[in-house]
Amino acid sequence: MAAEGKYETHEYDVIVIGAGGAGLRAAIEASAQGVKTALVCKSLLGKAHTVMAEGGIAAALGNVYPEDNWKVHFRDTMRGGKMLNNWRMAQIHAQEAPERVLELEEWGALFDRTKDGLILQRDFGGHRYARLAHVGDRTGLEMIRTLQQHAVHKGIDVYMECNVQRLLKDGERISGAFGYWRESGKFVLFKCKAVVLATGGGGKAWKITSNSWEYTGDGIAMALDAGADLIDIEMIQFHPTGMVWPPSVRGILVTEGVRGDGGTLTNSLGKRFMFDYIPDFFKAETAESEKEADGWYEDKKNNRRTPDLLPRDEVARAINAEVKAGRGTSHGGVFLDIASRRPAEYIKRRLPSMYHQFKELADVDITKEPMEVGPTCHYFMGGVRVDADTTAATVPGLFAAGEVAAGLHGANRLGGNSLSDLVVFGRRAGLYAAEHAKALKGPLAVDAGQIEAIAQELLAPFNGKGGENPYTIHADLQDCMQNLVGIIRTETELKEALDKLAAFKQRLTKVNIEGNRQYNPGWHLALDLRSMLEVSEAATLAAIERKESRGGHTRDDYPKTDAKFAKVNVVVKKRKDDLHISQEPLPEMPEELKKIVEEQK
Amino acid sequence: MATQEVTMRVWRGDASGGAFKEYRLPIGEGMVVLDVIHAIQATQANDLAVRWNCKAGKCGSCSAEINGKPRLMCMTRMNTFKPGETITVAPIKSFPLIRDLVTDVSFNFEKAKTIPPLRLKPKEADGTRRMFQEDIDRAQEFHKCIECFLCQNVCHVIRDHEDNKKHFAGPRFFVRLAALEMHPLDTNDRKQFIKEKAGLGFCNITKCCTEVCPENIHITDNSIIPLKERLVDEFYDPLAWLFRKIGGK
User: Is the ipTM, as predicted for this complex, more than 0.90?
Assistant: First the structure.
């Protein structure tokens, strides 16, 4: 029996998987191009990770500092990414971000305003000027709601709580996707000419994480399975400031906006320790004294940026080192203090959700006491390798945008550059996926045998023998990645992680799920574990390959940057059942852009 | 707080029926109800259905009725209960049950499709959009909505009268309509819609919605009452009525 007859089947030109900022923007664009488009997402609409973004969206609007422009933003992004970025993506991003922000305003977003009635911008780490358009500290909510409502008014078909598990191919090109409805557990088949992956990262494989249950690396695993390349997958951002106490909230994000608005990091001796951790690479642009640092908030011409706002990789490593040296708090973090530096009214107005979050979850009044913070697994810089202009992956018909795609952020992402990434490259993904779909003629073929095999694989956890519990495997995986593939890495530990990952894969075949297919989180986790394990393995292998320290990848056994590795991406491919690692040269940056990076110091 | 044991009564079942089931388990410092539900999932009932995402009160996924009170599970601390108290967790009542703590909230997504969208007036001569902070403060309050639908859940108009769902949008969408109406640059006219399709007249301002809003949006005072006043001005103002008569509208 043909798969179309056996399973609920839908036919589209473009399927967008994931409904955060990138997926929504891609679907809006594809639909505007006149192709039949569907948006498929794991959660309810409007609940994706974008909703949790806090501080703002980076765009050189120049509303607060007229000196700002795309060139400065480009330069900040490249330097923040330790020059591993795809230069063309960084250029497109810096050039198009302002247009995309103004478009959000056109669609109803209400950003905080300057005195002149324009969009207000705030300071953030690694950005030379106050650049982040924001709404207090709930910018992501504003953005996802604006895009969600726009998509709904455009009449785009949305499949909510529908979990896509595999991509389907007709020969070399994408021809569909197969997954299940969470509510009923029934399978669903999408036939389509193009797929846009907008599935985010895989931070749920780490124990201390800001990521929700959705962040299981599905898109990355599906792309690998479909034959696409990954790059930079060893580059994982640990956000310097997650909550550390009480234990139940460990890892929940504390916005960089706290530091952008004047907060400082101090150790248990009361010292502003970031002055001790200014790397040579950023010396020329970073304040050397507390006086200069404090002056910078008001006067950027005569003062350099506070080291509290060095890029995230630098700050996370510094916090890690302070705690290791015994200068941490009793709960293993450091202090983040805005209470002693800004008036209570200001704090409540600028950081209302931080105020609420600490008050409700930690009994801490951030207008009166410092917060306790420490690094938390936050963001994948690496992911699916894409063409800079079109977001096309290395498989025809496959596109990727947002966190799942790699290149823009290089070795380390600047705060605020993710929300802008979502709309800049989300739009491009929708546009080029639609073009691809329009150019294709003839019927779509999916392989019934392949679909049957996938269906059997997805049901396997109900028939497993061995009594393994998926939640236990997940907890063990999180311990493994946290302890062995964390902020600071060494070859022996990375290899130990590989052995453990192989053992987890074996255990996963022995999972036995209780209950039936209807809304069964145990079953869903067993399926998500497959992606988490694949992504964890790819990240670990790539981390072994990069024998240097750079951005979101720090090797204790190779503590310095290495000029040789400055010129290459680590590439991961899957052939048959195995992952293959190689190094490939970075695209060469044109001379005029090189000048921008050098000149604007 | 030392480790202590708690007893949780959690609804298990689907549309065909179900019952509360008791679970006993240890809890740790700082835990919220959602942590305990997750612990039950991990150790005693892998298939316990629950929605959640952010675990920080930002996404509005984990709405439930905890000891009869509509709350977000992620923002309800275990230390707010008396030691030894049995804690009952049930799905929100106003929407059809799918399974365990998960309900079918599609009513809200259907209503969202019907809302007349924003229609901005032309840009300024210099190509910008100028809006002043004091002019957007009110609409920004409404934009804080995390769509947890707790206000919809407690609204008597639909909680006790299934029939009304056809003609009534509910507090979440009054907040949304108010946000659109109070956008300083909007030009769309939604008054007919608010009166006839959204059924604002059904609301008798008992403020139940305001009381449960985890974002502390003043739903009744700041959105519903001003909308009611606009309708009164439009439809029941004798002068406006006279103008309409003369103008032949």
Answer: yes
